[in-house]
Design goal:
Elements: H1 16-25, H2 29-45, H3 49-59, H4 61-85, E1 88-95, H5 106-114, E2 122-128, H6 133-137, H7 141-153, E3 161-164, H8 166-174, H9 187-192, E4 197-200, H10 206-214, H11 218-222, E5 229-234, H12 239-244, E6 252-255, H13 260-273
Parallel strand pairs: 1-2, 1-3
Antiparallel strand pairs: 3-6, 4-5, 5-6
Keywords: Membrane, Transmembrane, Transmembrane helix
Length: about 280
């Protein structure tokens, strides 16, 4: 039997889906959106409540995922900005605690609560160990890194105060990290606390600068110069100092920030400590 001519052969049927795509392709964008919307409603009308929910979640899942991710990112960013821009309670560096894990910052929060600045404010309280000239001379890596970090952080009046022992205070005086008390305390604090002042020498004075840099111990530093510069306040016997739990008996407070906002917080704290 002869083969059927091509023109009489049965043509393959075009699927409804293909016809629908072809028809849709010929529509304008507006007509296409209207058709898709109608089909969407038609599908939903045939579904139960749970089926509708599952379908909508599946249909919009990428929109939901992207929206949730964006909201989470914006929320986290807003929190970080808020956390880092809150006013300060105080910005403090604590040097050479015997056991850094035992240091207690509760006295700072007690100060904030007493002055009504706890809510909506932040506390900066950093710990630096082995910040002494002895440790530096021995070239302990931790000592060098801590001293360098403290110096870098203090360049723009980042800290208001530094809590330290005597060895730490002499070393940060040598590093020019702190301000003299006569340039930072208000008149009331300066006059009422003078009997608590700790005096050191100006190690930048040309006559002793070279010897100061060559010194290997705190005692050697103390023998240089007239020791007539007020650089620290003895707070050892106060409840505030004892509450910090730094582990050494003689505790000194130094002023590390020279801007007006630094001085304001420092003087407020001193009035609280010696109230």
């Amino acid at each position: 039997m002869r083969e059927m001519l091509d023109e009489f052969k049965e043509k393959p049927k075009v699927s409804e889906e293909a016809e629908d795509r072809l028809e849709t392709a010929l529509l304008t964008k507006k007509e296409r959106r209207a058709k898709n919307k109608a089909k969407f409603k038609e599908r939903l009308a045939e579904m139960s409540g749970m089926e509708k929910f599952k379908y909508l979640v599946e249909y919009y899942k990428w929109y939901l995922i992207i929206t949730a991710g964006l909201l989470l990112f914006l929320g986290s960013l807003s929190y970080v900005i808020y956390k880092n821009t809150r006013p300060l309670i105080i910005s403090a560096a604590i040097l050479n605690p015997v056991d850094p894990t035992e240091v207690n910052d509760k006295p700072f929060f007690d100060f904030a609560e007493a002055n009504g600045i706890k809510k909506g404010h932040q506390l900066v309280s950093d710990i630096y160990s082995q910040v002494t000239i002895e440790e530096q001379v021995n070239r302990h890596s931790d000592s060098t890194s801590h001293a360098n970090a403290l110096t870098m952080q203090s360049t723009d009046d980042y800290y208001d105060i530094i809590i330290t022992d005597q060895r730490g205070m002499e070393y940060i005086t040598l590093l020019c990290v702190i301000y003299t008390l006569d340039s930072t305390l208000d008149e009331d604090n300066y006059n009422s606390l003078r009997d608590r002042f700790y005096y050191s020498s100006d190690y930048t004075e040309p006559s002793i600068a070279t010897k100061a840099l060559d010194s290997t111990t705190t005692d050697a530093l103390r023998k240089l110069g007239p020791q007539n510069i007020p650089v620290g306040i003895d707070i050892s016997d106060t409840a505030f100092a004892k509450g910090l739990n730094v582990g050494y008996e003689k505790i000194y407070l130094c002023v590390a920030g020279g801007k007006s906002e630094n001085r304001k917080r420092v003087n407020m704290l001193l009035k609280y400590i010696f109230k």
